[in-house]
Every structure is written in C-alpha cells, then in structure tokens.
C-alpha cells in the first residue's frame, strides 16, 4: 500500500516505542536545524500524539461479537458492553491535544464490528453503482494505487455529543454522551469525487448513498449525502483508509470508510462496501430513523406512532451546529483560593459546522450578562501555512481550501478573585455566519445537536472552589443538572433550574406523566455497596432499583413472580428487569420496601458494569445464572407460520445444559437497536429441559397493524441477525414440576393427581413444558386436561406435538382446542375460554387433588380467575404463570 516516507517510518517507530514520543502539541517539520532556528522558517503543524495500539482483547469483549477487537480500557462505555459506543474521559481527550490517538477516538458502532482478515484487506471491494454510466467495482489496493491520495486533519463529532444534558431535562430516545463524543485525526485517502467522476453520474443523479458491511437488525448501516457536496472540493469528502498514518483500526471502519468533514459523524459510513448514486435520499432504515432533529413538540409517543415525522428530509441533520465545551476546570476539580495564582486558565474546545470557522469563543462568569473573549488556537491553519507536502502516503495540500473542518482549542484567563464571587462559568462559540450557541436547549426526541452554552457550576466550599460539569457520561452519576433536578429545580426555566425567589419547586417536564414514586420520603439512610452485597441471599435480600435500596425479605412469600426472582436480584442492581417487568401497581408498592439510597461512590461502581457471567471465560457447568446475564448467540430461526418463529440460541458449548427446571422461565434481554433501551421479557423454551448446547424458544411476532403498534420485543427479536446475541438470565418462576405428581410452589412441595391446563396463544409454552414432562414419563400417573384457546386453527401453537401426546396417552391426556373464529368444518370447541367452557371441562371434584395451571393474555387470565372462583375453586388451587 504505497511506500512509507521517512516521516511515517519515524512515526511508526514512535508508535512501537522505539523513539521517544513527540511533544503532543506541535512538532517542527523541518530537517535542517539551521532553518528551524529561524522562526520564519518554522513550518509547524501537529502530528499525532504518541499512540499505543491496544494488543489485548478485553475480558468484557470476549463473549461479544467483537471478540476480535482489542481496545483501550480507558474508554467509557455508554451502552453497556456491546455494541461499542464510547467516549474518552474529557480531560484525557483534551490532554491529547489537537489530534486524538485512535485508541481514545470516540466510537459509535450500531452493531458488531465486521471481521476483516489482514490478508483480505488489499482485496476489500467497493462498488459504485446506481445512476452512473460506468459502474465501478474496485479493490482497496486499486483505489490506493490508481487514485491520488491526500491527508487532511478532520474532526468527527457524533450528533449525540452532549446528549446526557438533554436526557437530564427529559429522557430522549438516545443514550447518554458526555461532551467527549468528538475527536480529530489525520485521515488519508482519496477524494470521493475522483471515483464518482470516473463512474459518470447521469443527469438525474442527486444523492450519494453509502452502505457499510455491518449487518444490523434493520439491514446494513447506510445513509446518504448530496452529490453536489461530494463533487465540491471545498467540502473535502473522502474515502479514507488511514487514520493518523496507520491503517484504520477495526472500530473506525477498517479497511475503508467515508469521511464527510463538517457534518455529523453518522454520515461517515465505516466498513464501506457500496456507493449508490440515486435521485432520492437514502431509504436505509438508519438514514430515516437516526440522525434527525424532529420538532421539539414531537414527543417520543408521537414519533413512534407517526412515521411521517421521520420521512421528512427537512429534519435530517447534515452540517454540525456550532458548539463548545469546557475541559478545564474538570469535573470535581478543586481550586484552593488561598495562595492561588492571579488567574485561572479556563480551557476547552469549539467546533463549527459545514466548514464554517469558529470566529469567537466567549466566556461569562456572571450568567451571561457580560462576556470576555477567549484566545483561539487554530491548529488546522498550521497545515495550511505549511504548504503542500507529503504525509502518511498522501499529499497535505490545504493552502487553497478555506473551510475549517477541525475543532479549535481556546483559553481564557479569569482572575481567581472574580471566580470567588461567581456561581458558574459559561462558554459559547460563534461561527463566521454569526451562528451562535443558544442559551436554551432545543430538546428533541432523539436528543441530537445539543449545543446550548456549556455551563460549569462553581461550589464555594470554605477556601476551595469545586467545579461541577453539567453531567457525567453514561450512567455515571454527578453533575449540577442531576443535583438541581433532584432538588426540584426546573432545568428549563432559563436559569439552569436555579430557584428564583419565591418560586415553588417543579416537577421537570416530561416526568409529569406516569412517573410512579417508588421511594419513601421518610427514609434517608445512605447505604454502601459493601452493605448491599452482604444482603445477597434469601435470608435478607436487598436489591437496587434506580440507585435506591429495597429490602425484599417481607415480600418473599407473596411475590407473584416467586421468591426466587427477589433472591436472584439480592445484592445487585436490578433496575432494568424491575422497570421492564413490573406494572405501575407493583411499582407503587415499592415505598414500603424502600430502606435507603446507595451512596455516590457505590452508584458509580454499580453503573460501571453489571455482573457478567463468568468474565474469566472458563466453561460453566450450567448455562443459566440467576444472578447475571449470560450471552446466547442466535443460531437459527425457523418460521413455523407467518407470524411464529422458533429461535434457536446457542449456549457456551455443545455439552452445556441450560439449567432450567420444568415449569420455570428465563428472561431474554434485547436492546432496541437505535435507542439502546433494554427490552426484557420472560419466555419458556419449548426444547426439552435436558437438551444440551442449544435452547429453542417459540415466539409469536406481533407486527404493527393499522390500528395498533406491534410488540417491541417480538419485532426486535424477529429483526435479530443470525450470529447476534441476546442476554439471558434465569431461572425465574414460582412453580416447578419435579415429576410424578410432585410440584414445588414457592419452595413448598405439593402432590397432585391431575392438572387442568388453561392457556391461550403463546401461553401454551410453559404448559407444554409441564405436559411433556408428564407424558414422557410412562410411570407418571398424573392426568392432564388442556384447554387451549385461539382465534384461528393456524394460531394453535405446537398442535402437532400436542396431538401426539393425546394420541399416545389416551388414558392420561386430553387436549381441547377452542376457536373464536373456527372454520365451518371445525369439530373442536368454539368460543372464548370463560365460565361456560370451564364449567363443562374443568369441573372441580374434591376427591381428585387438582392444580389448575393458567397462562395467556391478561384478559384471559382475569376471566378464568373470576370464573373459576365462582365455580368454587380456591386460589390455592390456581397457578398463574
Ligand atoms: N458506519 C457504519 N457502517 N456503522 C455504524 O454504526 N456509525 C456512524 C458512523 N458510521 C456507523 C458508521 C456514526 S453514528 C458515527 S458518529 C460515526 O460512524 C462514528 O465514527 P467512529 O466510530 O470512527 O468515531
């Protein structure tokens, strides 16, 4: 891939540790020391900071589809372990200087990183197709050999940069970036226009669509930009294969990516495979449902209900907006005012959009009444000033180009004596079109392009000033926004939520709806993580939801989900599962069990990572772990009807048992591919509990219809590509069938002679497990009567197996199907499961010890409950799954 210049070789030797690192800020590019001595001849521009290629795959990544990607452990994970969405700690990012090392460069991956073997890189294929006269197919080797190569510094910014601030005001559909979703590198490659010129777009051609190699739940990642932007040399749109002089790293698109300067990072498609010229913007799912700023009046519900909002190109984001943030003072930095130097140097970054230069950065310490101008270092100009030259196998030639595609660093010296009287430090930037950052936030459903004045609060603590940034990234607690909100301040009052004299505390916007209070105001104990972890057993199970600690001891017996699920959560943070599975009624019961709040440090420890089953990677004798999520890979998917699938998940190894007792369930957790919101549901596999290495789950997919939204979980599962994983945890459930009539209900054993099994739709699955256990054991004398309700014949799940059970076990198995829309020739039962059918087929007799197992939609379970009680069945004989 081209010859290396001496400069590159030296750089690589530095990378490999042979040469001392170059000072991070500015490197003198001149061979002759005599010339260097003359300031007029110093052609100085920043070279990359020292870098260390991560050599090791981190333990946390080993069980994910990214097990082939070595990474830097300093990066803060914003969406759990996988996919990899990370930013560096803000101070570390800033300290690296103008250029960011690839290992600290922020990463935004929607899914798994494609596996690309080193030997295949030169033959990586890229096509140019669509509205062109000469479609092109070429390899990376050809792209590098046949096209002119350029090297340019470019800042990439995720459209979600600073989103955590929006999430504090009102939860958006996006995860919480701090202010480090931005990084800069020297990219080397070809101008995209060169390639497209050779393909000769036709007259109708307007857009350049791009597609990556990462297969995601909604297809390959893809988006588009306008053709005339690509053809405009001032916009500098590139196809890059190198970053800071080395081959792109896997997380950044190895071996080839688009780089669209001045626009949001989402347009710079990584692992680029296809360029398609069209007359319409991309119809890729990620182009439509991601990277948009919908009007602020569009709520999450409205956005979900009305796809028209997403299809309006006016709301798609291309150019970045003007933005800035303060890096120093850092969050929680303290300044002792006694003996402090006269000035404190406030420092940070700023960037503009669409190539527009940041023309001023202003700092205020009196809430925006007056502003002082800061000094700006335009490092990007140093490459312009240096004139054309070769670097990393490409020509740096920016002399002719006026656009600014990089961040700039600014500083502002503020007298410490003035800071002592100030409440906060504010910064705002303006660009050459006089676009200025606003004071107030523009909240929108995806939480993108957040760019109000960046504010650091100053807390006066005796002789110290303690600085507080607005937020901390991901779930890390801290920041003035969280503090102000907790105290009832309205973050949108135009005054950063500070109480104006006489103002009542407010409930923040967006939280007024359906926020169930789960804490007890009378409780104000602080609990440490060590105290929590001591209560990790059935003796005294404590668990955490949203940072609050609850004692489940007195609820073990009554818990409708069984004592086991409380015990499984003991000593752990179970926020996700709790919030996903429980009703508002259940949440409203929580204040009675509230015993305290986790302290700050403990919250941080908990938020840094949930417990992962066997992080060491040693094989576990049993797959399921009731206290931590395990990853199971989707192995295959078989459609058994138009809306029903059997998903087969692969466990860790072929001989591994699942570890699910008959009659119990497991939880499956998926994350919404865009919002990263976790979705958790419980399922009972239909494969035998003794099956090894794999487990089969039968799922009916609830698609969207004209009148109602479909099922979030089942649609997401249906969209899951083969090879992706889901998180699995369990067992859960209060019922277990031990065998030969012996059951265990919440730990108490009970013998039965007969089961009545009442179910509807996919409620058959737990029933099926128990029924099969009874039928497979020839010595099990228990009799079973199944009453299975559905709408149409084709809705009856597992019918073939059920019929075989009935045929082979005439003396102990009776299966009754009832249909609400049975065909004319249907000779089974008709109508809904309710009083009359139950009276006829589930008759109570005191001589036969019977347990009724019920599983189905809520309405069916309610009707059956009422009807059976009316017919004299006590609750102790009814078991709802
Ligand atoms: N390209 C592909 N193929 N897949 C992706 O998930 N993410 C996009 C963009 N290109 C993405 C992609 C988004 S949203 C951003 S912000 C940038 O890549 C991030 O680039 P980086 O991870 O190299 O910083």
From TrEMBL:
Q: One Pfam family, short name please?
A: Oxidored_molyb
**Residue ranges annotated for the FAD-binding FR-type domain, each copy included:** 627-738
Q: In the record's cofactor note, how is the cofactor described as bound?
A: Binds 1 Mo-molybdopterin (Mo-MPT) cofactor per subunit.
Q: State the source organism's domain of life.
A: Eukaryota
Spell out the molecular function terms from Gene Ontology.
Answer: heme binding; molybdenum ion binding; molybdopterin cofactor binding; nitrate reductase (NADPH) activity; sulfite oxidase activity
> Can you cite a GO biological process for this protein?
sulfur compound metabolic process
- Substrates-to-products reaction catalysed: nitrite + NADP(+) + H2O = nitrate + NADPH + H(+)
Please list which residues make up the signal peptide: none
Instruction: Answer whether the UniProt record assigns the keyword Plastid to this protein.
Output: no
The alphabetical list of record keywords is: Disulfide bond, FAD, Flavoprotein, Heme, Iron, Metal-binding, Molybdenum, NADP, Nitrate assimilation, Oxidoreductase
Q: Which residues bind Mo-molybdopterin?
A: 158
The record's annotation in PROSITE patterns points to:
CYTOCHROME_B5_1 (PS00191), CYTOCHROME_B5_2 (PS50255), FAD_FR (PS51384)
Q: Using the UniProt annotation, give all residue ranges assigned to the region (Disordered).
A: 1-43
Q: Which family does it belong to?
A: Belongs to the nitrate reductase family.
Q: What is its quaternary makeup?
A: Homodimer.
Protein's job: Nitrate reductase is a key enzyme involved in the first step of nitrate assimilation in plants, fungi and bacteria.
- This protein is called Nitrate reductase
Could you tell me which species this protein originates from? Lepidopterella palustris CBS 459.81
Q: What is the lineage of its organism?
A: Eukaryota, Fungi, Dikarya, Ascomycota, Pezizomycotina
């Amino acid at each position: 891939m081209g010859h290396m210049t001496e400069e590159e070789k030296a750089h690589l030797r530095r990378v490999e540790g042979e040469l001392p690192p170059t000072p991070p800020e500015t490197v003198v590019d001149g061979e002759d020391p005599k010339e260097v001595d003359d300031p007029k001849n110093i052609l100085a521009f920043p070279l990359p900071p020292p870098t260390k290629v991560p050599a090791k795959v981190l333990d946390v990544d080993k069980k994910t589809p990214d097990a082939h990607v070595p990474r830097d452990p300093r990066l803060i994970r914003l969406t759990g372990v996988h996919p990899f969405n990370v930013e560096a700690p803000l101070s570390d990012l800033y300290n690296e200087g103008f250029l960011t090392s690839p290992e600290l460069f922020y990463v935004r991956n929607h899914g798994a990183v494609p596996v690309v073997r080193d030997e295949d890189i030169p033959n990586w294929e890229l096509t140019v197709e669509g509205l062109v006269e000469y479609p092109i197919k070429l390899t990376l080797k050809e792209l590098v050999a046949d096209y002119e190569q350029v090297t340019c510094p470019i800042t990439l910014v995720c459209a979600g940069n600073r989103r955590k601030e929006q999430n504090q005001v009102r939860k958006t559909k996006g995860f919480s970036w701090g202010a480090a979703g931005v990084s800069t590198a020297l990219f080397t490659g070809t101008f995209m226009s060169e390639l497209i010129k050779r393909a000769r777009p036709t007259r109708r051609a307007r857009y350049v669509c791009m597609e990556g190699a990462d297969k995601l739940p909604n297809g390959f990642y893809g988006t588009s930009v306008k053709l005339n932007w690509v053809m405009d040399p001032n916009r500098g749109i590139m196809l890059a294969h190198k970053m800071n002089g080395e081959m792109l790293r896997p997380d950044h698109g190895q071996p080839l990516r688009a780089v669209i300067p001045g626009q949001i990072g989402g347009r710079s498609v990584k692992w680029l495979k296809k360029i398609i010229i069209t007359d319409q913007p991309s119809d890729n799912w990620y182009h439509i449902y991601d990277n948009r700023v919908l009007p602020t009046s569009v709520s999450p519900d409205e956005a979900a209900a009305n796809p028209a909002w997403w299809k309006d190109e006016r709301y798609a984001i291309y150019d970045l907006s003007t933005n800035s943030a303060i890096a120093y003072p850092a969050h929680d930095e303290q300044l002792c005012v006694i003996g402090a130097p006269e000035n404190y140097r406030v420092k940070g970054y700023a960037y503009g959009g669409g190539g527009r230069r940041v023309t001023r950065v202003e700092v205020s310490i009196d809430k925006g009444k007056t502003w002082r101008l800061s000094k700006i270092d335009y490092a990007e100009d140093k490459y312009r000033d240096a004139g054309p030259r070769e670097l990393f196998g490409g020509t740096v030639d920016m002399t002719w180009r006026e656009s600014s595609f990089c961040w700039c660093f600014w500083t502002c010296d503020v007298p410490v004596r003035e800071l002592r009287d100030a409440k906060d430090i504010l910064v705002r930037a303006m660009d050459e079109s006089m676009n200025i950052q606003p004071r107030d936030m523009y909240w929108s459903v995806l939480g993108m392009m957040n760019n109000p004045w960046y504010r650091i609060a100053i807390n006066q603590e005796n002789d110290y000033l303690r600085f507080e940034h607005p937020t901390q990234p991901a779930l890390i607690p801290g920041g003035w926004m969280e503090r102000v909100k907790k105290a009832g301040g309205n973050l949108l009052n135009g005054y950063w939520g500070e109480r104006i004299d006489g103002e009542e505390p407010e409930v923040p916007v967006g939280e007024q709806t359906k926020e169930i209070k789960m804490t007890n105001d009378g409780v104000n104990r602080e609990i440490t993580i060590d105290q929590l972890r001591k209560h990790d057993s059935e003796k005294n199970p404590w668990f955490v939801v949203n940072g609050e600690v609850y004692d489940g001891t007195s609820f073990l017996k009554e818990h409708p989900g069984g004592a086991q699920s409380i015990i499984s959560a003991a000593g752990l943070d179970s926020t996700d599962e709790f919030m996903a599975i429980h009703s508002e009624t259940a949440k409203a019961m929580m204040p009675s069990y509230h015993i305290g709040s986790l302290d700050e440090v403990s919250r941080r420890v908990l938020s840094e990572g949930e417990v992962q089953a066997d992080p060491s990677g040693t094989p576990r004798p049993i797959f399921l772990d009731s206290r931590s999520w395990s990853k199971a890979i989707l192995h295959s998917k078989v459609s058994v009807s138009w809306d029903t699938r059997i998903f087969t998940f692969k466990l860790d190894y072929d001989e591994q048992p699942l570890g699910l007792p008959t009659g119990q369930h497991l939880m499956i957790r998926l994350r919404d591919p865009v919002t990263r919101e976790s979705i958790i549901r419980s399922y009972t596999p239909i494969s035998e509990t003794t099956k090894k290495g794999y487990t089969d789950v039968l799922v009916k997919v609830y698609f969207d219809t004209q009148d109602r939204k479909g099922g979030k979980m089942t649609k997401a599962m249906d969209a899951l590509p083969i090879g992706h994983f889901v998180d699995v945890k369990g067992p859960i459930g209060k019922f277990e069938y031990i065998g030969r009539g012996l059951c265990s209900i919440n730990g108490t054993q009970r013998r039965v002679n007969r089961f009545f099994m009442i179910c509807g739709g996919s409620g058959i699955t737990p029933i099926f497990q128990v029924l099969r256990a009874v039928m497979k054991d020839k010595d099990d004398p228990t009799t079973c009567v199944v009453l299975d309700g559905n709408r149409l014949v084709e809705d009856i799940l597992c019918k073939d197996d059920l019929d075989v059970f009935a045929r082979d076990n005439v003396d102990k198995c009776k299966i009754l199907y009832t249909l609400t829309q049975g065909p004319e020739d249907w000779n089974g039962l008709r109508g809904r499961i309710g009083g009359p059918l139950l009276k006829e087929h589930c008759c109570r007799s005191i001589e036969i010890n019977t347990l009724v197992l019920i599983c189905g939609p809520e309405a069916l379970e309610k009707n059956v409950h009422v009807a059976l009680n009316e017919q004299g069945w006590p609750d102790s004989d009814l078991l709802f799954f």
